[in-house]
Amino acid sequence: MGRDRLAALRAQRQNATPDPGQGGYEMQAHPSPSANGTGNGTGTDPLSAFYAEATAIQDSIQDFDDNVTRVAEFHSRSLNALDDAATQANTSQLERLTDETRQLSNSLANRIRALEKPAGAGPDAQIRKNRIDVVRTKFMATLQRYQDVERQYRQQYRQRVERQFKIVKPDATPDEVAAVVNDDQGGGGQIFAQALTSSNRYGDSRAAYREVQERHQDIRRIEQTLGELAQLFNDMATLLGEQEEKIDAIETAAAGVAHDTEGGYATHTEVAVKHARSARRKRWICFWLTIIIILAAVGIGVGVYFSQHPVKSSSSG
Fold first, then answer.
1. What pLDDT score does 38 carry?
2. CA 20 to 30 Å from 97, out of 107, 150, 183, 225?
3. Where does the pLDDT of residue 40 fall: very low under 50, low under 70, confident under 90, or very high at 90 and above?
4. Cβ–Cβ < 8 Å for 243, 118
5. CA angle 72-77-83, nearest 5°?
6. Nearest partner of 139 among 28, 43, 225, 235, judged by Cα
7. Which helix (H) or strand (E) holds 210?
8. What is the pTM of this model?
9. What pLDDT does 293 receive?
10. pLDDT tens, residue by residue, 224-283
């Protein structure tokens, strides 16, 4: 009978077990313990969130640096373009890339400002400061590199304008060359137009004039970018100074609290020691006064006794 019951239980268990091939089991999705960065279901702690944002900013700085490299490549193509169509296509791509890079750099500056909000004193304050210094330094280095690239190609564009002007007017004076290169208040264009009327190479002169106009636009765009980069760089440097002042203030306040605590502890300890010594001295005084009083009382008692009971001397013979 025991065997029958065992067989019945086995058959019931087999019937109750779904066939995996028939879709009897349905997998349930469970969040990974590390999905929120902690594994305890309470969400990401502030320090983990800080590290995640700092890492994301560094990745974006790398994108910014890659854009700077591409900007340099487009500048080089612009200088080496052989026809107007290639020049226009390259200029259009360079403008889009410059706008994209401008937006990226401004976004990075804002994110770094948000990252640098002081979290106050604490065990993680120095860790945060060190990581922020790394992020800020990398960003400012890329800003500096971007400025160097723009200055380099601005100079090359100016040299190109000078060569094109000398094609039109080989005997141009240094002042005329400087006026055309710098194009102060449009004066360079007027000088160039006048040179065109006296040139015997009309076709080459017209082509040179078009290129000079294009280079002037390139130079103006570069100078605008340089101004924006300089402002951004100065803002970051100012933010660095302000942040250091805040950190110094926090450290000074913390040091003051520690000093006051130590000073208060030392003062109270000194007072307590003085009180203890004074109390001990008073106890000893009371002790000796008590001994003196007891001895005086004993002496007085003995004196009274002998005064009332004089000692009788025995007479001889």
1. 40
2. 183
3. very low
4. yes
5. 155
6. 235
7. helix 202-308
8. 0.62
9. 77
10. 999 999 999 998 888 776 666 555 555 565 555 555 555 555 566 676 667 777 777 877
Instruction: Give me the amino acid identity at 176.
Output: E
- Cβ contacts of 254 within 8 Å, gap of 6 or more: 121
Q: How many CB atoms lie under 10 A from the CB of residue 15?
A: 7
Q: What is the pLDDT of residues 297-314, one digit of tens each?
A: 767 776 766 677 665 555
- Name the one residue in this structure whose structure tokens are 């349905």: 26
Question: Rounded distance, CA 16 to CA 22, Å?
Answer: 14
Q: φ and ψ at 299, to 5 degrees? A: -65, -40
- Please give the Cα distance from 50 to 71 (Å, whole number): 31
How many angstroms from the chain centroid is the CA of residue 176? 49
Q: List pLDDT tens digits, range 149-167.
A: 999 999 999 999 888 888 8
Which pairs from 9-14 meet CB under 8 Å and 24+ separation?
A: none
Long-range contacts of the stretch 185-188 (C-beta < 8 A, 24+): 188/216
DSSP codes joined into one string, 117-159: S---SSTTHHHHHHHHHHHHHHHHHHHHHHHHHHHHHHHHHHH
DSSP state of 183: T
Residue 217 near residue 208, CB atoms below 8 Å = no
> Are 78 and 161 in contact, with CB atoms under 8 Å apart?
no
